[in-house]
Design brief:
Layout lengths: L9 E9 L5 H18 L1 E10 L11 H14 L3 E4 L5 H11 L2 E4 H12 L3 H15 L5 H9 L8 H5 L4 H29 L3 E7 L5 H9 L16 E6 L5 E6 L9 H6 L1 H8 L3 E7 L5 H14 L6 E7 L7 H10 L4 E2 L8 H15 L1 E8 L3 H10 L1 E7 L3 E8 L1 H14 L1
Parallel strand pairs: 1-2, 1-3, 3-4, 5-7, 5-8, 8-9, 9-10
Antiparallel strand pairs: 6-7, 11-13, 12-13
This protein binds guanosine-5'-triphosphate (GTP) and magnesium ion.
């Protein structure tokens, strides 16, 4: 009998620099998050190292002495991968590769790797490949390509193997082809989203693993993949959410955010993130059971800023209340974030309150109006039902007095219909 043993995981050392911008505890937390990312990418963290330095070393990022120390650790512990929490420049990568003779990755490279292995739709795959190539282009040094070819595993997925021998010119051609494809995908989506303008739209945003997909499933009885994994979702899914009495909004779930999300990744995911830009309401979901949830809020706010979506109507929803034992944390949230809602998407706790809140926003957004229509004009009355939320209808002798609620564009449409036909 032949037993197939699983491929052993690559063994990694994680390194972060403390330059005084963050406290030691915060950097430890960044390293913990990097460990989670490493695990998601399929490697095992053996050591986490933090060095205090006034600023990064231009040649090695960490100090030369520290680098030599790490070199020994690598040798003694059979390490295959060295991952840095910040982005390195091409010179630093080259020097470190020469010294360690191992594969060097930074946080951006690692995130891109995870995105590459999770991408399922044609759109997500195109977006990730574009981001990877743009990331790779300035790093396409001889040492880098040589080493990437030699070692398998993480850090070499996606376009790595196939494009590695090609020169920059070919990569640039590929980049512009991918951009073209994305433009096409985007224009298809614009057509789709114009028809969606008839509805009020809400998009779930939040740090990765906050529970966005779980909440979408809970609210709309869907079965979008939700799991305890970073970046489980890489595309956007839209479902209709019935709020009762004919009130329907379109709710979307999309890719999660994380600190130091590579800029070219955000840019490449433009078409996926259009659901954020186009939304009437942003539902910002926060995992309140996470120790550093306030940091997560800041990261999400910054990313919304970057996307130009920071001025939208935002509802802060604190998720995973079921996982908090410390009551004072809940009190602190209520105090620091007035108007926010605490829920458990998984257990369904307080989700109705969120729905009530959405109904309120819906009612504010959709203006109520009263009109009179001749009783004989049943066609217009039928169209009114289609385009709006009819709240009351009274039949008098010749006319029907109708109160309805609609968004502005549908209201204009209705008025045009009435004026055209009366
Ligand atoms: N305890 C607890 N866990 C939850 C709750 N909501 C979601 N989770 C868990 O959190 C994990 C992440 O949930 P997802 O819904 O995949 O999170 P997401 O925000 O869509 O994550 P990405 O798509 O990876 O960015 C899963 O293991 C869920 O079961 C909750 O209310 N309480
Ligand atoms: Mg998700």
């Amino acid at each position: 009998m032949i037993t197939i043993s699983p491929q052993p995981k690559e063994r990694a050392i994680l390194i972060a620099l403390s330059t005084g911008d963050y406290t030691r505890e915060q950097i430890e937390e960044h390293l913990d998050e990097l460990e989670l990312l490493t695990d998601t990418a399929g490697a095992e963290t053996i050591f986490k190292i933090m060095q205090e330095r006034y600023r990064p070393d231009p040649a090695y990022y960490i100090g030369k002495g520290k680098a030599e120390e790490i070199s020994q650790l690598i040798e003694l512990n059979n390490i295959q991968l060295v991952i840095f929490d910040d982005d390195l420049n091409p010179t630093q990568v080259r020097n470190l590769e020469k010294l360690f003779e191992k594969k060097i990755l930074d946080r951006s490279g690692l995130i891109l790797d995870i995105f590459a292995s999770h991408a399922k739709t044609r759109e997500a795959k195109t977006q990730v490949e574009l981001a990877q190539l743009e990331y790779m282009l300035p790093r396409l040094t001889r040492a880098w390509t040589h080493l990437s070819k030699q070692y398998g595993g993480i850090g070499t997925k996606g376009p790595g193997e196939t494009q590695i021998e090609t020169d920059r010119r070919i990569i640039r051609t590929r980049i512009s082809k991918l951009k073209d494809n994305l433009h096409k995908i985007e224009s298809q989506q614009i057509t789709k989203s114009t028809s969606r303008r008839e509805y009020l739209t809400a998009t779930l945003v939040g740090y990765t693993n906050a529970g966005k997909s779980t909440l979408l499933n809970r609210l709309t009885n869907s079965d979008v993949l939700a799991e305890d994994k970073l970046f489980a979702t890489l595309d956007s899914t839209t479902r209709s959410l019935e709020l009762g009495k004919g009130k329907t909004i379109l709710l979307s779930d999309t890719v999660g955010f994380i600190r130091k999300l590579p800029h070219n990744l955000v840019a490449s995911f433009k078409s996926t993130l259009n659901v954020v830009r186009d939304a009437d309401i942003i539902i910002h979901l926060i995992d309140v059971s996470h120790e550093y949830f306030e940091d997560h809020i800041r990261v999400v706010e910054q990313t919304l800023d970057e996307l130009g979506a920071n001025k939208k109507h935002q509802i802060k929803v604190f998720n995973k209340v079921d996982a908090i034992n410390d009551k004072s944390r809940i009190e602190m949230v209520i105090h620091n974030h007035p108007g926010s809602i605490l829920i458990s998407a998984e257990r369904g706790i307080n989700v109705n309150n969120l729905k009530k809140n959405l109904i309120d926003v819906y009612e504010k957004h959709f203006v109520e109006q009263e009109i009179e229509i001749p009783n004989s004009n049943s066609k217009i009355i039928a169209q009114l039902y289609e385009l709006s939320d009819v709240t009351s209808i009274k039949y008098l002798d010749d006319v029907a007095v109708i109160k309805f609620r609609a968004n502005r564009s549908n209201q204009n449409k209705i008025m045009r219909l009435i004026n055209g036909q009366q």
